[in-house]
Amino acid sequence: MVPQIGDNVVVPGCGVGRVAQLENVESHGSSSPMYKIVLHDDKSTMWIPPARFGPKGVRGVMSQAAARRTWATIASQPMPKKRANWPKRQRRYNEQLLSNDPTVMAELLGELAAVRAAHHLSFGERTIYERVKALLIAEVATALDRPRPEIEERMRETLDAAAANERPVELITAPH
């Protein structure tokens, strides 16, 4: 992926940002080209080398079709039949959170939502649940060019419906 100035991109584990500029950055006496990424959530800035763009690094925002598949994945995750101990779950959850694959992150959110419906989540599980939910909401809202509060509300409704074993809320895909 070769990003263009103004493109929206996803930084694994950090969220959605915009490519602000490409600039040569001096470090330890040498100069390297770096993309300046401004994250949407907190307006923090990151400098990313071009080699970090691609499927395993910084990537483009998912398509509308991928957003629909991701949404369906969240709503379809069952409660795990048997849960590993916390250190094993935490390792797996963190790997899924940082996977950079929206489908894998959706599986994580759906699983945690199913667990949340049956039990109280531990502090660590709640933290991961809220983080993955925020990352997916930000990317889906950007992919669909919809207001974030609207996607947050639809996500809440979808997770509530999944917890009650009801039909999930449809994801609106037409731009506003």
Descriptive keywords:
single chain, 176 residues, 5 helices, globular
Description:
By secondary structure, the chain is of the alpha+beta class. It is 45% helix and 19% strand. The chain contains 5 helices and 5 strands. A 5-stranded antiparallel sheet has the order 4-3-2-1-5. α1 packs parallel to α3 (102-118), α3 crosses α4 and α4 (123-144) crosses α5. The mean pLDDT is 89.
N-end to C-end Cα span: 28 Å
Q: Largest sheet at a glance?
A: 5 strands, antiparallel
> How many beta strands in the DSSP annotation?
5
Radius of gyration of CA atoms, rounded to a whole number: 17 Å
What helical percentage do the residues reach? Answer: 40-55%
Q: Which residues form runs of ≥5 with pLDDT under 50?
A: none
**How many individual helices?**
5
Q: Please give the order of strands in the largest beta sheet.
A: 4-3-2-1-5
Strand content: 15-25%
Coarse morphology: globular
Order of helices and strands: EEEEEHHHHH
pLDDT averaged over residues? 89
Structural class: alpha+beta
Please outline the helices and strands.
Blueprint: E1 8-11, E2 15-27, E3 30-39, E4 45-48, E5 59-60, H1 64-76, H2 86-97, H3 102-118, H4 123-144, H5 148-163
Antiparallel strand pairs: 1-2, 1-5, 2-3, 3-4
Short description:
The chain is α+β, with helices and mostly antiparallel strands. 45% of the residues lie in helices and 19% in strands.
